[in-house]
Amino acid sequence: MSDRESPAPGDQAHDVLAAEAFAVPTADPSLRHEPIALPEDPSGIVEPHDVLAAEEFAMPAPRSPVSPAGAAGIAARAATPVRIGALAVVALLVRRALRRHRG
Fold first, then answer.
1. Is residue 103 assigned to a domain?
2. Residue 68: predicted pLDDT
3. pTM for the whole structure
4. Contact indicator for 43, 49 with CB cutoff of 8 Å
5. Considering its fold, how many domains does the chain have in total?
6. Does some domain include residue 19?
7. Which domain does 84 fall in, by range?
């Protein structure tokens, strides 16, 4: 059940959507079947001359990579067994230090 009052039968709607308040005009039949005549270019140039900035100005070349292998070489060097072993030793030392500190 709703606490709102129901409108009286003679009341007009007062909350109207804009789409219902303003009618959409219909199509103009004189424009529908005629071919479209585009105006001439005001500059008078016939060939295409509007160029996008991306076509007009080249992107600068990236810097040369540090190593010839690129990103794959950097990733391969980062995961060497020596580094993994050193990280494991450091993790074990930290774990041992935390256990001594707690207990």
1. yes
2. 56
3. 0.27
4. yes
5. 1
6. no
7. 71-103
